[in-house]
Amino acid sequence: MIMRIDGLVRQAPPAPALLRRLGYTLVRRRRAVMVLSLLATLGMGLLAAQAVAGFSLARFEAPGSESDRAAGELARRFGTGSVDLVLLVTAGKGDVDAPAVTAAGRELTRKVAAAEGVAEAASYWTRGNPVTLRSRDGRHALVVARIPGDADTVRSRILPALLSGITAGTAGGGVIEVRAGGGEEVFRQTVPLARQDFVRAELVIFPLAFVLLLFLLRRPLAALLPLAAGVFAMVTALALLRGVLAFADVSTFALNLTLAMGLGLGIDYALFVISRFREEVRAGHDLHEAVALSVERAGRTVVFSGVTVAASMAVLLALPFDFLRSFAYAGIAVVAGGVAGAVVVLPAILAAAGHRVLPRPGRAPDGASGGFWHRLAVRVMRRPVLYGGAATLVLLLLGSPFLGLRFGVADDRILPASAPARQTQEVIRQEFPAEETDALQVVSAGPVAGAAEVGGYAAALSRLPGVAQVDSAAGSFSRGARVGDGEPARFTGPEGTWLSVVPTAELMEADPVRLVEQVRSVRAPFAVLVGGYPAELADYRASVVDRLPSVLGLMLAVTSVILFLMTGSVLIPIKAMVLNLLGLAVMFGALVWVYQDGNLSSLLGFTPTGSLDPGIPILMFCVAYGLSMDYEVFVLSRIKEEYDRTGDTAAAVAAGMRRGAPIITAAGAILGLSFAVYATAEVVFVQMLGVGMAVAILVDATVIRAILVPASMRLAGPANWWAPPFLRRLHRRVGLSG
């Protein structure tokens, strides 16, 4: 960077010099920094508590899609829409057609329709006893309701008030029993379960992490400091998310990501700084000088790592989905907290704690523990093709199930079998011949010729495989034949008409998206929009999948630029990208093998659906890729430092592995543990995140860093540091080195 002052051109201080000045400032003002940090943590804790209470579970919606437009037209022109709440009514005695049950069912329907926030309600008894709202054995019937409004209002205020008086066990004087289901109730019950998963996981993670840190650092205070840095990162992130809540929805799942990543990254960054502090003391520097040098050298790597992880998460902001954007906010906030804790707060504590953080006298220095990694790196570089090829084949084999990936949509089976909403939906899925609550809604978007055209169109739709019945203003149709008069007034308005395409229960369980495609492919006699819950899921899935190439391309480009700024090399960012993608293939292979194909489902306690929701893999790709680059930055910083000193790539790799690999492996083990504990979660989304991330991190911190990095560096030789002349000039001007 160049500065012009008083007509003179002067070179601005490089970034490492600025970091060293920060280090000296933190040493001089260590007590003030510690006091201010404590006060800030307490203040942010209050904001963090408010943030946790404000998290919600965003809906799976695709703004501007055909289903979104159809929903708007249905509400505006016909005052109707998709069902949000389903009440499963079970007859206490006899069947649902018994007079007492009928009276109780009608009264229940009336009570629901009159409840605050409910726009409309209907039931088996108020719609002329359709078979689609009655179970095959006649013991159950359904009440359905539409509750417009944002997810927070519906799930936190309207549903609890509505359900508190009618699902406490029995209703109608014991004549009927009522249980709640439907999409809004399923996801309402998901929120507290996800929070319970967090509490249970954190109770396990903290003591286990402390034991691992104590084993690594051999001093209680040194082991506590990374945990404190993790807590600081979590609290800071949640406090920052409190500000985000003022203008955006944040998913409750972001809480789990914030806490797992916050603890893991906080520990990672703190370990790197503490390790460098000990190294500088061993090199003969006094404590305060060692702190300043640690901020300069390790702090630079921490900042680079943080920028890389944050950039990987930030690409989720390019997606128009609140659910995925929540994780971008959380990831950026976590990185901010982790970097601040490691580069600002921790150095002040190290300056005050002094020798109490150093190894006990007589203990072998930390670098000795890297002897294994040094020998392994040397062995790999002697036969890079053999070791690198074998490791690559193993990873490709482990990742091969990814080739069978099938994208689907989430349903009630994200909940454990013990969840009331899941149990309600299981009864509906097994006992009812059709899924009227999940009907497709076909809305006219232009002039309608007449009843004959409507009837012909309804008959054509009813012939589609998986369609149980089509209701319209021209009557009800099944397999092309008219089976009833239907409710003409319900489907007709002053500006057109709409039709309800009711799928079978079997199709909804197998492939609801396929039905949406088939309905949209049937030629209509007038312009139509296809909406309803299956269409919303299909449009959400298509919208996410269509954006995959651009999102992934953006993330790869951003992280490659960051690595170029760090190394000045063109080849190293490309190699890092390839190696990280190889590790991520293993993660996706594990997800497909376990959660799509159902292997280990009995052990982990979930119900496989034969597909994966596309939002979760995208999220995990961004998180895992960012964390992989985190370790890439850690190991490359040591290798580049040695190469700048010696000019020998092989020696630099061996020395970098000796000094960096023990810390990277330990950090990876702790971060992997932080995620792996979520394998005990009851909510499948949280469990998938934990298992997948643990696999990705452990593979990356071991096989990729220990074998593939040395092998690829050896094979590339001097080309590792190559860049065309114009990029070398660019790096000299804007690159960060030291």
Automatic annotation (TrEMBL):
Segments crossing the lipid bilayer: 198-217, 224-247, 253-274, 302-321, 327-353, 385-405, 551-571, 578-596, 616-639, 660-679, 685-708
Superkingdom per UniProt: Bacteria
Alphabetized Gene3D superfamilies for the sequence: Multidrug efflux transporter AcrB transmembrane domain (1.20.1640.10)
Domain (Membrane transport protein MMPL): residue spans on this chain: 62-386, 415-725
UniProt keyword annotations, A-Z: Cell membrane, Membrane, Transmembrane, Transmembrane helix
Topology relative to the membrane: Multi-pass membrane protein
Gene Ontology cellular component annotations, sorted alphabetically: plasma membrane
InterPro entries referenced in this protein's UniProt entry, alphabetically: MMPL_dom, Mycobact_MmpL
Subcellular location: Cell membrane
Family: Belongs to the resistance-nodulation-cell division (RND) (TC 2.A.6) family. MmpL subfamily.
Protein name per its UniProtKB record: Membrane protein
Species this protein is from: Planobispora siamensis
Record lineage: Bacteria, Bacillati, Actinomycetota, Actinomycetes, Streptosporangiales
